[in-house]
Amino acid sequence: MSNRPVTDYATSILSAQGWSTREVSYVDEAGIEKVNLIASPPGQDIADCAVDLAFLCHTDTVPYAKDWSQALQPVLQGEMLHGCGACDVKGFLACLLTVAESKDARWIDGLRILLTADEEVGCIGSKRLIGSSNLRPRRLIVGEPTSLRAARAGKGYCLAGIVIHGREAHSALPAQGVSAIYAAARLVSALEELGQQLSTETHSFFEPPFTTLNVGTINGGSAKNIIPGRADLLVEWRSIPGLSPERIPTAILTMLERLPTQYSGSRGTLDILRQQAGFETAADSPLVKRVERVTGLPAVSIAFGSEASAWSTVADEVVVFGPGDMRSAHSERECVSIPELNTAVQAIRNMMQARFDI
Ligand SMILES: [Zn+2]
Fold first, then answer.
1. Sorting pLDDT into bands at 50, 70 and 90, what band is 350?
2. Is 109 a catalytic residue?
3. Using an 8 Å Cβ cutoff, are 311 and 56 in contact?
4. N or C: which end of the chain has fewer CB within 10 A?
């Protein structure tokens, strides 16, 4: 589906308050129009690239289960508002629009609101926006549910497919075949060793404090009496900031080069399916200090992937921040606390209206 209804709704609220908006749209792989939206407060030139502080919010959600009848009808239970996208991340969007509606506001110079498409399928909208515009915010707050903490670091997320090729033959005649499964077993052992090696390189701000590596699936063979000709593996790793993005792919390629000598006749190929680096903003950076001060809460790291990784390549300081707890997201339990929404509105209003004292 197009996200246009969401960006049109946001545009109507922002325009009514005198904000300027600019659409950076594209057509996705399925031929559907997707919209990224840039907004600047009254009196600020939207074409001006000297952006000091931007607030970014994605406009998509993950799909919801068919039997979740109230997914699109927010329900209040006690202090919690339930619904699809409540914390990931429509709650933060509502906070941004609420602050934009502030009467008699004096906005800081170089302020922007950025709304993006297709975050949940690989941060595609953000990557498009970075690639197709000259938008280079010095400081960026990415809305995601962090229970109002300034998340200043996150692990990367990478996924790769490995195919091991052997040669099929009748199992009664092993000399005529090459078992892709026996070859894959050598590779899996080498991957386990790599994981152990990575666990010795630590970053104390994370729990667990090292890069984790997982062989998530292995599929191979076609019948009990056929020597397997092919085995497929899915390997993912979540890297600590600072780990070179080439480190693990290079290690796996070296293992694959060695495979024919370890298990004669076999060979393997590697296909990187996703590669998102980690990010880290210094603990003493003005943005981290500012979010800590307005919320009264210490900075944390996050275990989930976000648009912060892509933007940290162009922005000086990036913090992930927002109401709600990611543990309820992507499920029928998704909810956001009304008091946290109110606190977020105050924190965002504070940051949008008072300059950093540096
Ligand atoms: Zn999200």
1. very high
2. no
3. yes
4. C
